[in-house]
Amino acid sequence: GQSLEQPSEVTAVEGAIVQINCTYQTSGFYGLSWYQQHDGGAPTFLSYNALDGLEETGRFSSFLSRSDSYGYLLLQELQMKDSASYFCAVPNQAGTALIFGKGTTLSVSS
Amino acid sequence: DTAVSQTPKYLVTQMGNDKSIKCEQNLGHDTMYWYKQDSKKFLKIMFSYNNKELIINETVPNRFSPKSPDKAHLNLHINSLELGDSAVYFCASSPSPAGELFFGEGSRLTVL
Question: Buried b / exposed e across A94-107, counting CB within 10 Å, b at 16+?
């Protein structure tokens, strides 16, 4: 089967850097995605890594190591508006849908 | 123009009733999905349609019946509602199966 593990909660202060880890088990690998969801809102796409290494998009970066079945989302210069849930996701075995981790709730305080 | 829209946004109903949620996307995507998000925020795939054809039915009770009249629409009908069906149901679309997902705003179902 497939599974994704990520921490349930992370707290940080404004201006700090936080890393949200995700380890996955899957047979066949087609890439790791990250989604952000604010309370009461819909998940929105943040990033996608198909190959090893770091992908940077503004204050957010995502890293993948396929040999370790591991990735992380790095959020820099944290702002209050970054308080949200963050989900890692991988395609299912058939490649027909994304399977999500249980989400990490990030709380940013001033 | 909302890319993925679903209605209604809120449903409150009694156990045993039947309800439907409608979803439409104007992105020209081939693949549409229904996800269920429970109170612990776990997002679980329920159904996936590609070009109106069902490609995933993830051990969902047969009280749930999706229907895709065309590529742009995917509706969800739920019969004989149970307390455990209370959740937020998200419709999503992607250009191809397991591609980047574009979610609707969600429909919060409360079964009393």
Answer: eebbbbbbbbbbbe
> pLDDT of A58-101, one tens digit each?
999 999 999 999 999 999 999 999 999 999 999 998 889 999 99
Report the alpha-carbon distance of residue A62 to residue A75 in Å, rounded.
Answer: 9
What is the rounded distance in angstroms from the CA atom of residue A10 to the CA atom of residue A72? 13
CA distance A107 to A50: 28
Q: In the A/B pair of chains, how many CB contacts fall below 8 A?
A: 57
User: Do A91 and B98 make contact, defined as CB atoms within 8 angstroms?
Assistant: yes
Decide if B66 touches A, using CB distance below 8 A. Answer: no
Is 90 exceeded by the pLDDT of residue A42? yes
Distance between CA B57 and CA B34 in Å, rounded?
Answer: 10
Closest residue on chain B to A90 (Cα): B98
Chain A residues close to B43, C-beta within 8 Å: 43, 87, 100, 103
Whether a cis peptide bond, with omega within 30° of 0, leads into B61 is: no
Sole residue written with tokens 């045993």: B16
Cα separation of A28 and A9, whole Å? 28
